[in-house]
Design goal:
By secondary structure, the protein is mostly beta strands. It has five helices and 23 strands.
Length: 497
């Protein structure tokens, strides 16, 4: 894809400017003190379900830590700690920091498991960091609190272990007086060793986002891209002796997303497509910060091959509007935030695929070589509304070894949050989807699905302050089995005050 090369070169240029950015502080500015937020907690939660499935919004976008089936009891704990280096007399204090993070989740179910959604070692220099391991991350311009999650990297699956270098939030470009800033990272990692079809797959991932507008600007413009690739490893499909293309030469092709490279280890499939399974989104956003409300309008455009460069699948994407109240007046009932989203993936460039025009049948999150698709431990890495075949009531034999049998969907979503009686926080998520299956195997009908959750939380005066939470979730429709569930939990923040 020619746009991948352009964005990668732009990303490299940003990294090249790194040293210049670090030295741009004026001697007349106040001292910059770099600090790191940490998460230290312990929590208990129990789930009770009316059926064998956990409702969609009770387990989706939870970094793969909530079981999909049945009732459960969960114990969680998390710990992060950073050591600061540098002189207190420096104009930029705590420039160097090093830390570790561990988060453990124990689920007591029929198939009890202990999971580690976070396990990392991190070194930070000013607003840059390098880490190794697992760390929770959401990628893309979208509302990550009340929305459905970014299209390509939503937080629905367990974090993938990787090495990553990048910024911590947005960093100012030099000589722009804060009017232009960027947020970027570059990483490589590994998928689980024994997947349903493939094994020893590697992950390549990068992203670059730009922002126009300084810290005092009412209006800010944002744009950028994310790029993910599954490559290397082994697959029984369209490979030579079961091996997917590997090595440094092919890694360069993975990074750039170029096509038509020849090699002894390449098949006709590799030549006609690309090295690896590429996907991502190109995002744009507009943010307005008023006195009463802050508004954020965003759009994520989908790509998996060259269709987007020809605007063939431009109808597909995630559209969102987030409105947040900036001030609280202590009323008995307050609506503090509201998010509207519309996800559409039914176009995919049309029903006809042609190599010369790169037309149609993009088949999101599926790949002819990587048949277990854009997944990690059988969970969608991207939007949870493109569901694993094993999750739904609609299972087609032709998709027995493909990840999803349902990637042509449209979703209307509403997320809301606020307070009740000034002491109780509440959150609601309501989603309605229409599902068409795939172009290769359409659903006989178009099953519709409603999924919702409503949660309440309140701080209790136990043990110096414990947060209690109560949630009710429901699935009603034809895509999933109808089910209701309730959960209750206690959360204790152990961070130092």
């Amino acid at each position: 894809m020619h746009f991948s090369r352009f964005y990668f070169q732009l990303f490299c240029s940003s990294v090249f400017l790194f040293n210049t950015t670090l030295s741009a502080q004026s001697v007349y500015e106040k001292p910059v003190i770099y600090s790191d937020s940490t998460l230290n907690y312990i929590s208990l939660k129990t789930f009770g379900s009316s059926g064998p499935r956990t409702p969609f919004w009770m387990q989706a976008n939870q970094f793969g830590t909530v079981p999909k089936s049945g009732s459960a009891f969960t114990l969680r704990t998390g710990f992060e700690y950073y050591v600061k280096f540098g002189s207190a007399k420096s104009k930029e204090r705590n420039v160097w920091r090093a830390g570790i993070g561990v988060e453990a989740v124990g689920n007591k179910t029929e198939n009890s498991k202990i999971l580690f959604p976070q396990l990392h070692a991190t070194v930070r220099f000013k607003n840059w960091e390098f880490y190794a391991g697992r760390k929770k991350q959401q990628v893309g311009l979208a509302d990550s609190t009340l929305g459905t999650g970014s299209y390509a990297w939503s937080g629905n699956a367990m974090p993938i272990p990787k090495l990553q270098i990048g910024t911590i939030g947005f960093v100012n470009f030099p000589f722009t007086k804060g009017w232009l800033s960027f947020n970027a990272f570059y990483s490589d990692g590994y998928f689980e060793k024994n997947r349903p079809i493939t094994s020893n797959l590697k992950l390549h991932q990068k992203a670059l986002y730009l922002k126009i507008g300084n810290k005092n600007s009412r209006l800010k413009l944002l744009g950028g891209f994310n790029h993910q690739v599954q490559w290397g490893g082994k697959s029984p499909y369209h490979t030579k002796d079961g091996d997917l293309p590997d090595g440094f030469k092919n890694y360069i092709n993975v990074i750039t997303g170029q096509r038509y490279f020849l090699g002894d280890d390449l098949t006709e499939f590799d030549y006609n497509n690309r090295i690896g399974n590429h996907l991502g989104s190109i995002d744009i956003g507009i943010q307005y910060i008023g006195y009463e409300y802050s508004w954020f309008l965003y759009r994520q455009n989908i790509y998996e091959d060259g269709s987007l460069s020809k605007l063939l699948n431009i109808a597909d994407g995630l559209n969102g509007l987030s409105i947040k109240k900036n001030n609280s007046y202590g009323a008995d009932f307050e609506l503090k935030a509201i998010v509207f989203e519309f996800l559409f993936t039914k176009s995919q460039g049309g029903s006809v695929w042609d190599l010369q025009t790169v037309l149609g049948r993009d088949n999101y999150f599926n790949n002819a070589q990587v048949r277990d698709g854009w997944s990690y431990f059988d969970r969608t890495i991207g939007t949870p509304f493109i569901t694993p075949t094993s999750d739904t009531n609609w299972k087609w034999p032709n998709y027995a070894d493909s990840f999803t049998s349902n990637n042509r969907v449209s979703v209307f979503h509403l997320g809301i949050s606020g307070t009740l009686f000034r002491k109780i926080n509440w959150i609601g998520k309501l989603s309605y989807s229409s599902n068409m299956g795939t172009y290769d195997e359409p659903f006989i009908k178009k099953p519709t699905q409603f999924s919702g959750i409503f949660s309440l939380s309140k701080k209790l005066n136990w043990l110096g302050g414990v947060q209690s939470g109560l949630s009710f979730a429901s699935d009603i429709g034809q895509l999933y089995q109808n089910t209701n569930a309730i959960s209750f939990g206690l959360y204790k923040d152990l961070s130092r005050k």
